[in-house]
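Render HD/PDEase domain-containing protein in 3D.
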Amino acid sequence: MPTPRAWQKMLSGRRLDLLDPTPVDIEIEDIAHGLSFVARWNGQTLGDFAYSVAEHSLLVERLYSRLNPRAPAKWRLAALLHDAPEYVIGDMISPVKNAVGPGYDALDKRLAAAVHIRFGLPATIPVPVKKQIKKADRISAWMEATEIAGFTVAEADRFFGKPDPEVIRDLSIALRPPTDTRAAYTARHHALLAEMG
């Protein structure tokens, strides 16, 4: 019996092996394109455009930077790329991830390591940095839940924790066409790489 295909051809022409991803097969244009078309909340959000993982990632990077104003560019890049594997595996809501089990987590970790190495980050992000990125991620989830996903503030507080009002001051959820989000994600990635030198 033939082995099932476990690779995906990207628009860049790269062929990404999901079981053994290599950094040379990772391109930021593929990531930005894929994430700008992947909907958060399984698409169950208000508005004329889906709220994409790319848009979410841009917000998480901004929140991480507010929480950690002295963070070097490499950790801000890690925040931007925190959901990068979802460009090929999609965004599963937490209840689905829990139902799928450890296989999803292993796949996510393999892809994340390849992405990190491709862009000059360590394969595994240090735990303190990862915790701060997760904190920014939860604040973003609270904002999304209350602004576009139909949660009451009390529900969002219970599931995601109540954010510090200063951290989210002047920020709001942006809904825009995927092409605009793709361009913004790619531009932010390039700016952070340039800052890293």
